[in-house]
Amino acid sequence: LGVKWDTWQPLGGNFASGPAALLNSDNMLELFGRGADRGVWHKAQYMTANGTTSWSRWTSLGGLVSTAPVARMSRDGLIHLFVRGVDKSIWYKPQSVVNDTIVFGTWKSLGGNARSFAC
């Protein structure tokens, strides 16, 4: 049983960080990155009507961040984003269900004074 890699596919965008990716509850990829504008951007895979996989457009999730986002999915299938803001606080943006639609909420500060470290 061999694994064969496909060719690289451009997904567009202009980023100042590496990506964060995860599989959502539908086993489709969700992709996040810190844009050149220092905001967080999001792109998601979806299944088309003819059964092929495609990507949504990049959409801004806002914020003014100084690190790449970290994304995690909770047991209920909702995504939670974490970043360090330009104010050095840790910021959090959760998904929630509103009128039977999954949406990202507002950014919430978790406080702190996170320092940057050279890696």
Structure overview:
The structure is a single chain. With 119 residues, the protein is mostly beta strands. The protein is built from no helices and ten strands. The chain has strands spanning 20-23, 29-34, 40-47, 53-55, 59-62, 70-73, 79-84, 90-98, 101-104, 108-111. The strands form two sheets. Strands 1, 2, 3, 4 and 5 form a five-stranded antiparallel beta sheet that branches. A hairpin with a 5-residue loop joins strand 7 (79-84) and strand 8. The N and C termini lie far apart (37 Å). The model has no long low-confidence stretch (mean pLDDT 93).
Which key phrases capture this entry?
119 residues, mainly beta, 5-stranded antiparallel β-sheet, 44% strand, globular
